[in-house]
Amino acid sequence: MAELSLNEPAGVLVKTTCVDYPGMLAGSFFLMGCNLFCPYCYNTDLVYCKKTSGINTIGELFSHLEKRQGILKGLVISGGEPLLNPYTPLIIKKARELGYKIKLDTNGTLCDELESILSDEQLKPDFIAMDIKTSPSKYASLIARKKSKYAENPEYFENALKRSSELISELPPDCREYRTVLVPPLVTKNDIKDMACILPEDASWQFAQFQNGSCLDPSYNELTPYTDDEVNELISYAKSLRKGAQLR
Q1: How far apart are CA 61 and CA 165, in angstroms?
Q2: pLDDT at position 44, please?
Q3: Where on the phi/psi map is residue 214: left (φ > 0), alpha (ψ -120 to 50), or beta?
Q4: How is the chain classified by DSSP, letter by letter?
Q5: Residue 27 · residue 14 · CB < 8 Å
Q6: Which of 70, 137, 144, 160 is deepest in the core (most CB within 10 A)?
Q7: Nearby residues of 190 by Cβ (< 8 Å), 6 or more positions away
Q8: Is residue 1 predicted with pLDDT exceeding 70?
Protein backbone atom coordinates (compact mmCIF):
# COMPACT_ATOMS: atom_id res chain seq x y z
CA MET A 1 0.00 0.00 0.00
CA ALA A 2 1.30 3.47 -0.89
CA GLU A 3 2.20 5.76 1.98
CA LEU A 4 -0.71 7.98 2.92
CA SER A 5 -0.23 11.70 2.42
CA LEU A 6 -0.82 14.03 5.34
CA ASN A 7 -1.37 16.95 2.98
CA GLU A 8 -4.33 15.78 0.91
CA PRO A 9 -7.87 16.99 1.77
CA ALA A 10 -9.33 14.23 3.94
CA GLY A 11 -12.17 15.47 6.11
CA VAL A 12 -13.71 18.22 8.22
CA LEU A 13 -12.12 19.20 11.53
CA VAL A 14 -14.31 20.42 14.38
CA LYS A 15 -11.74 21.87 16.72
CA THR A 16 -13.72 21.63 19.95
CA THR A 17 -16.96 19.88 20.89
CA CYS A 18 -18.61 19.15 24.21
CA VAL A 19 -21.46 17.07 22.73
CA ASP A 20 -19.90 14.50 20.39
CA TYR A 21 -17.98 12.50 23.03
CA PRO A 22 -20.18 11.85 26.09
CA GLY A 23 -18.70 13.43 29.20
CA MET A 24 -15.55 14.62 27.47
CA LEU A 25 -14.22 17.77 25.81
CA ALA A 26 -13.02 16.61 22.43
CA GLY A 27 -12.21 17.40 18.84
CA SER A 28 -13.96 15.71 15.93
CA PHE A 29 -12.77 14.73 12.47
CA PHE A 30 -15.34 13.81 9.82
CA LEU A 31 -13.65 11.70 7.15
CA MET A 32 -14.71 11.68 3.51
CA GLY A 33 -16.31 8.63 1.94
CA CYS A 34 -19.38 6.57 2.80
CA ASN A 35 -20.86 3.28 1.65
CA LEU A 36 -24.45 4.43 2.27
CA PHE A 37 -26.73 7.09 0.82
CA CYS A 38 -28.89 8.25 3.72
CA PRO A 39 -31.40 10.65 2.13
CA TYR A 40 -31.49 12.96 5.16
CA CYS A 41 -27.69 13.23 5.51
CA TYR A 42 -26.34 16.79 5.55
CA ASN A 43 -22.66 15.87 5.06
CA THR A 44 -23.03 16.04 1.27
CA ASP A 45 -19.40 16.95 0.52
CA LEU A 46 -18.16 14.02 2.60
CA VAL A 47 -20.46 11.50 0.92
CA TYR A 48 -19.46 12.70 -2.55
CA CYS A 49 -15.79 13.19 -1.54
CA LYS A 50 -15.80 16.78 -2.76
CA LYS A 51 -12.47 18.44 -1.95
CA THR A 52 -13.92 21.88 -1.25
CA SER A 53 -12.28 24.75 0.62
CA GLY A 54 -13.74 23.54 3.90
CA ILE A 55 -11.96 20.18 3.81
CA ASN A 56 -8.95 19.74 6.12
CA THR A 57 -5.85 17.57 5.78
CA ILE A 58 -4.63 14.93 8.23
CA GLY A 59 -1.61 17.15 8.83
CA GLU A 60 -3.92 19.94 10.00
CA LEU A 61 -5.70 17.50 12.30
CA PHE A 62 -2.43 16.30 13.84
CA SER A 63 -1.19 19.86 14.30
CA HIS A 64 -4.41 20.75 16.12
CA LEU A 65 -4.18 17.70 18.39
CA GLU A 66 -0.61 18.57 19.31
CA LYS A 67 -1.55 22.17 20.14
CA ARG A 68 -4.55 21.14 22.25
CA GLN A 69 -2.83 18.46 24.35
CA GLY A 70 -3.88 18.81 27.96
CA ILE A 71 -7.01 20.76 27.03
CA LEU A 72 -8.91 18.33 24.82
CA LYS A 73 -9.22 14.83 26.21
CA GLY A 74 -10.81 12.94 23.33
CA LEU A 75 -10.99 12.65 19.56
CA VAL A 76 -14.13 11.61 17.68
CA ILE A 77 -13.50 9.94 14.32
CA SER A 78 -16.66 10.16 12.25
CA GLY A 79 -17.73 10.53 8.65
CA GLY A 80 -18.82 9.53 6.21
CA GLU A 81 -17.93 6.04 7.35
CA PRO A 82 -14.49 5.88 8.99
CA LEU A 83 -14.23 2.07 8.82
CA LEU A 84 -13.75 2.22 5.05
CA ASN A 85 -11.24 5.08 5.18
CA PRO A 86 -7.52 4.16 5.08
CA TYR A 87 -6.64 7.15 7.27
CA THR A 88 -8.54 5.82 10.31
CA PRO A 89 -5.79 3.53 11.72
CA LEU A 90 -3.20 6.28 11.23
CA ILE A 91 -5.36 8.81 13.08
CA ILE A 92 -6.04 6.44 15.98
CA LYS A 93 -2.37 5.62 16.47
CA LYS A 94 -1.28 9.26 16.36
CA ALA A 95 -4.02 10.44 18.70
CA ARG A 96 -3.21 7.65 21.14
CA GLU A 97 0.47 8.68 21.13
CA LEU A 98 -0.68 12.15 22.14
CA GLY A 99 -2.78 10.80 25.01
CA TYR A 100 -6.28 11.15 23.55
CA LYS A 101 -9.23 8.85 24.14
CA ILE A 102 -10.76 7.65 20.86
CA LYS A 103 -14.46 7.57 19.96
CA LEU A 104 -15.48 5.96 16.67
CA ASP A 105 -18.79 6.69 14.93
CA THR A 106 -19.91 3.97 12.53
CA ASN A 107 -23.02 3.04 10.57
CA GLY A 108 -22.67 -0.63 11.54
CA THR A 109 -22.80 -2.06 8.02
CA LEU A 110 -19.10 -3.04 7.88
CA CYS A 111 -19.05 -5.72 10.56
CA ASP A 112 -15.85 -7.41 9.33
CA GLU A 113 -13.91 -4.14 9.46
CA LEU A 114 -15.40 -3.40 12.88
CA GLU A 115 -14.36 -6.80 14.21
CA SER A 116 -10.86 -6.27 12.86
CA ILE A 117 -10.39 -2.93 14.58
CA LEU A 118 -11.85 -4.19 17.86
CA SER A 119 -9.47 -7.16 17.89
CA ASP A 120 -6.39 -4.92 17.55
CA GLU A 121 -5.38 -3.42 20.91
CA GLN A 122 -3.54 -0.60 19.15
CA LEU A 123 -6.65 0.41 17.24
CA LYS A 124 -9.54 -0.56 19.54
CA PRO A 125 -11.58 2.58 20.25
CA ASP A 126 -12.39 3.63 23.80
CA PHE A 127 -15.98 4.41 22.82
CA ILE A 128 -18.15 3.42 19.84
CA ALA A 129 -21.38 4.97 18.62
CA MET A 130 -23.38 2.99 16.07
CA ASP A 131 -26.06 4.62 13.96
CA ILE A 132 -29.20 2.63 13.30
CA LYS A 133 -31.33 4.41 10.76
CA THR A 134 -34.48 2.37 10.23
CA SER A 135 -35.62 -1.26 10.22
CA PRO A 136 -32.64 -3.39 9.11
CA SER A 137 -34.83 -4.96 6.43
CA LYS A 138 -35.32 -1.52 4.82
CA TYR A 139 -31.66 -0.60 4.35
CA ALA A 140 -31.34 -2.21 0.93
CA SER A 141 -34.24 -0.24 -0.53
CA LEU A 142 -34.02 3.06 1.39
CA ILE A 143 -30.44 3.55 2.62
CA ALA A 144 -28.07 1.64 0.30
CA ARG A 145 -26.39 3.30 -2.65
CA LYS A 146 -28.51 2.41 -5.66
CA LYS A 147 -25.67 0.93 -7.72
CA SER A 148 -23.95 -0.91 -4.88
CA LYS A 149 -23.81 -4.70 -4.85
CA TYR A 150 -25.90 -4.72 -1.66
CA ALA A 151 -28.76 -2.57 -2.97
CA GLU A 152 -30.88 -5.64 -3.61
CA ASN A 153 -29.63 -7.70 -0.69
CA PRO A 154 -31.60 -6.93 2.50
CA GLU A 155 -30.16 -10.00 4.20
CA TYR A 156 -26.67 -8.50 4.04
CA PHE A 157 -27.70 -5.43 6.01
CA GLU A 158 -29.78 -7.39 8.50
CA ASN A 159 -26.86 -9.71 9.25
CA ALA A 160 -24.22 -6.96 9.27
CA LEU A 161 -26.14 -4.66 11.59
CA LYS A 162 -26.94 -7.48 13.99
CA ARG A 163 -23.31 -8.62 14.04
CA SER A 164 -21.99 -5.09 14.57
CA SER A 165 -24.42 -4.51 17.42
CA GLU A 166 -23.29 -7.76 19.03
CA LEU A 167 -19.64 -6.75 18.73
CA ILE A 168 -20.27 -3.32 20.22
CA SER A 169 -22.37 -4.79 23.04
CA GLU A 170 -19.24 -6.54 24.29
CA LEU A 171 -17.86 -3.15 25.32
CA PRO A 172 -18.74 -1.83 28.79
CA PRO A 173 -22.11 -0.02 28.81
CA ASP A 174 -20.49 3.37 29.41
CA CYS A 175 -18.28 2.90 26.33
CA ARG A 176 -21.00 2.48 23.71
CA GLU A 177 -24.23 3.93 22.40
CA TYR A 178 -26.69 3.56 19.54
CA ARG A 179 -28.13 6.54 17.68
CA THR A 180 -31.26 7.14 15.61
CA VAL A 181 -32.54 10.26 13.85
CA LEU A 182 -36.32 10.59 13.94
CA VAL A 183 -36.91 10.94 10.20
CA PRO A 184 -40.68 10.55 9.56
CA PRO A 185 -40.49 8.18 6.53
CA LEU A 186 -37.79 6.02 8.13
CA VAL A 187 -38.65 5.82 11.82
CA THR A 188 -42.14 4.77 12.87
CA LYS A 189 -43.24 2.69 15.84
CA ASN A 190 -42.87 -0.47 13.76
CA ASP A 191 -39.35 0.56 12.77
CA ILE A 192 -38.44 1.26 16.38
CA LYS A 193 -39.66 -2.21 17.31
CA ASP A 194 -37.53 -3.77 14.54
CA MET A 195 -34.44 -1.75 15.51
CA ALA A 196 -34.79 -2.61 19.19
CA CYS A 197 -34.58 -6.30 18.34
CA ILE A 198 -30.89 -6.03 17.42
CA LEU A 199 -29.87 -3.82 20.36
CA PRO A 200 -28.68 -5.14 23.74
CA GLU A 201 -31.09 -4.85 26.65
CA ASP A 202 -28.84 -2.27 28.33
CA ALA A 203 -28.37 -0.14 25.21
CA SER A 204 -27.96 3.59 25.53
CA TRP A 205 -30.23 4.54 22.62
CA GLN A 206 -29.91 8.21 21.73
CA PHE A 207 -32.55 9.77 19.51
CA ALA A 208 -32.27 13.09 17.66
CA GLN A 209 -34.94 15.16 15.97
CA PHE A 210 -34.79 15.35 12.19
CA GLN A 211 -33.95 18.76 10.73
CA ASN A 212 -34.83 19.45 7.11
CA GLY A 213 -32.46 21.56 5.03
CA SER A 214 -29.28 20.65 3.12
CA CYS A 215 -30.35 17.00 2.87
CA LEU A 216 -28.56 14.65 0.48
CA ASP A 217 -31.91 13.90 -1.16
CA PRO A 218 -33.45 17.33 -1.84
CA SER A 219 -36.97 15.93 -1.48
CA TYR A 220 -36.26 15.40 2.24
CA ASN A 221 -35.91 19.17 2.65
CA GLU A 222 -39.67 19.33 2.14
CA LEU A 223 -40.45 16.88 4.93
CA THR A 224 -42.14 18.16 8.06
CA PRO A 225 -40.36 16.92 11.21
CA TYR A 226 -42.33 15.13 13.89
CA THR A 227 -44.14 17.40 16.34
CA ASP A 228 -43.03 17.48 19.96
CA ASP A 229 -45.99 15.30 20.93
CA GLU A 230 -45.14 12.76 18.23
CA VAL A 231 -41.49 12.72 19.29
CA ASN A 232 -42.45 12.16 22.92
CA GLU A 233 -44.74 9.29 21.92
CA LEU A 234 -41.99 7.60 19.90
CA ILE A 235 -39.40 8.04 22.65
CA SER A 236 -41.83 6.65 25.21
CA TYR A 237 -42.41 3.62 23.03
CA ALA A 238 -38.69 3.10 22.48
CA LYS A 239 -38.15 3.38 26.23
CA SER A 240 -40.68 0.60 26.79
CA LEU A 241 -38.44 -1.64 24.66
CA ARG A 242 -35.01 -0.40 25.81
CA LYS A 243 -34.87 1.55 29.07
CA GLY A 244 -31.85 3.51 27.92
CA ALA A 245 -33.75 5.22 25.10
CA GLN A 246 -33.87 9.00 25.29
CA LEU A 247 -34.04 12.16 23.21
CA ARG A 248 -30.67 13.90 23.04
Answers
A1: 29
A2: 87
A3: left
A4: -PPPPSSSEEEEEEEEESSSSTTS-EEEEEES--SB--TT---HHHHTT---TTPEEHHHHHHHHHHTBTTB-EEEEESS-GGG-THHHHHHHHHHHTT-EEEEEE-S--HHHHHHHHT-TTT--SEEEEE--S-GGGHHHHTB-TTSTTTT-HHHHHHHHHHHHHHHHTS-GGGEEEEEEE-TTT--HHHHHHHHTTS-TT--EEEEE---SS-SSGGGGGPPPPPHHHHHHHHHHHHHH-TTEEE-
A5: yes
A6: 144
A7: 135
A8: no
CA separation for the pair 177, 195 (Å, rounded):
14
The identity of residue 176, as a single letter, is: R
Asked if the peptide bond before residue 80 counts as cis, ω within 30 degrees of 0, the response is: yes
Distance CA 206, CA 246 (A): 5
Checking if the pLDDT of 123 tops 80, the result is yes
pTM exceeding the 0.90 threshold for the entire prediction: yes
Confidence at residue 2, expressed as pLDDT on a 0 to 100 scale:
60
- Angle in degrees, 0-180, between the axes of helices 189-196 and 228-241, rounded to the nearest 10: 30
Average pLDDT of the chain is: 95
Amino acid at the residue 69: Q
The whole-number average pLDDT for the span 9-31 is 97
The b/e string for 34-55 (b: 16+ C-beta within 10 A; e otherwise) is bbbbbbbbebebbbeeeeeeeb
What is the C-alpha separation between 181 and 57, in angstroms, rounded?
29
